[in-house]
Amino acid sequence: MGRIKDSFERAKNQESKTLITYYVAGDNNLNFSKKVFLKLLSYADIIEIGVPFSDPMAEGSVIQRSHERALSSDITFKKILSLVNKLRVHNQDKPIVLMGYMNNFLSQGESLFKKIKNAGVDGLIIVDLPYEESEFFYNKLKDIDLDLIRLISPTTPKKTIEKIVKFSSGFLYYVSFRGVTGAKLSNFKEVQDNVKYIKSKTKLPVVVGFGIKEGEIAQKMSKISDGVVIGSRLIDIVQQNNFRLNDSLKFLEKSLKKFRRDVRKK
Amino acid sequence: MTNKTNNYNYPDKNGRFGSFGGRYVSETLISALEELESLYKKIKNDKKFQEELTNDLQTFVGRPSPLYFAKRWTDKLNGAKVFLKREDLNHTGAHKINNTVGQVLLAKKMGKKRIIAETGAGQHGVATAAVCARHGIECIIFMGSEDIERQAQNVYRMKLMGAEVCPVSSGTSTLKDAMNEAMRDWVSYIDDTHYIIGSVAGPHPYPMIVRDFNSIVGTELKKQSKILFGKYPDKIVACVGGGSNAMGIFYPFIKDKEVDLIGVEAAGSGLSSGKHAAPLSDGSPGVLHGMKTYLMQNSDGQILGTHSVSAGLDYPGVGPEHSFLKDMGRVHYEAATDKEALKAFHDLSRVEGIMPALETSHALAWVSKNAKKLKKSDIVVVNLSGRGDKDMQSVAKADGINF
Ligand SMILES: Cc1ncc(COP(=O)(O)O)c(C=O)c1O
Questions:
Q1: Which of A165, A192, B269, B363 could potentially form a cystine with B239 if both were Cys, beta carbons 3.0 to 4.6 Å apart?
Q2: Distance between CA A185 and CA A202 in Å, rounded?
Q3: Residues on chain A touching B23 (C-beta within 8 angstroms)
């Protein structure tokens, strides 16, 4: 459980909250996404690599289209692992987390765990992982020193939160609203109360994601939590630049620098 | 198999049918699914609820549906005696309404103000629109843009009954994508919305609830066949898309091992062509739409595009209980091609004056192929799940006719 834990420590020592980014492997092709991830690695504390799925049930339209583009560029699980491998050549410190849907992970069978470990992955977020199976995944990942990061939402009952944190490691991911990725945040007070409650039940860091697009919201959210996840916004930027590599990287850098400042403690 | 069928009591407390089923959804949906499950358990055996449901089934849907002897078709096939369970005579023209009249009552009990549903052929959409109109509840139907084109009349029917039809153009623009979009909507409006899933698919408790509401078909058939034949049928045949009409007619017979149960999937252009919608015949277990079940997928777990002449069978998954019954060997699953289904459609129309839905025509195609191999004294019942009025355009197109 090295890299994820260290990254939260490091952020703390730098008087900052943790900045986590999400981008989809293979959007708009493998090499393009590799360049994006390298850029993200130099500004974010943790990077989430989205594993594209044909039926991404929890995503809003921006990330859906991203998954579609990645799949039409013939991305495979194998290629994603070799991408992680290549990223690890450039960066050995920052955590890399795979975020995706159950069916893509299941399709790898039992060899999944060894494969992701060897590639240099630090943890998994499985959007549609049910409780009954979280213990299995938690233990499997724990055996090889990887983290199982779980989601908690505004509709999660308090009793359930205690069950979820039991089989979680690395950090907890609080979904800021009832909705799909990319929608608009609506109820700040609710986020604040729920994050506070979760923190009273676990020693793990709690980060907030979904709907964080503007620096102002990132700032607000990072004040009440241990970090924020930026996803749709980054894909928006690349889209707005029509997938021209240099322009995309330039505007990503600009945006990341700003988010970096926004999550710094005042 | 014997032991398992004797004690058949599924799903288990985790919503599993053996290893199938379950609840693979975003965390946001879990509490709504739990609420639905606990309400359903509470009122399932409530006398007042049952009375209300029975009244709606009789006076709004028109139940019981008749069991009809297809005499001229039987003569033509020159084999087993063929009977049709006439779900096509239900209000709105298919078995789908058995489920929606029940679920709308659940929605009202939960105080939900808004109902959403996905639809493929449009039959479930129409059945949902009808119950929402009857109860004065807002209704939104998600439908793939390709299906909107294939089933234009049903789209108009939904609109006439006050439903809003939302085109879905992500992924393959068909039923599976409409279901994804309905789930996304549900996550976003979870507090005041009930999602009426249209088949025995999706996360627990849907496969159980939809099966239970549709099993009125099998329960009636039990009574009718005792009176008509003095015994249960030898074989019961139903088409399988998500599997609700099949589950509805099979379920009451699962413990009656002398009754053969046959589910017929859509073989599209042929199983070997890869262009089909037959996950039980040519798929593998995986997770989609909140359930573990047989799916059409590649080795990386990406869901494959499907093909069938009938929009209602054009789905890459199947209800988890069917996956369980297949592995257990209690139900036999076969498949019929577009061509075979179209031929059965024409045969039944000409010989019996009954135009079946293209979905149903797949079950009829199995009977065409196999009746001759059976004893003349054998009794085969086909679940005539719906009428073919909605398919005029597709059939004409296949026949090279333009209106
Ligand atoms: C008449 C009819 N039969 C069958 C089906 C397939 O659904 P299921 O397998 O859930 O019965 C449909 C779906 O639209 C239908 O309209």
A1: B363
A2: 25
A3: 130
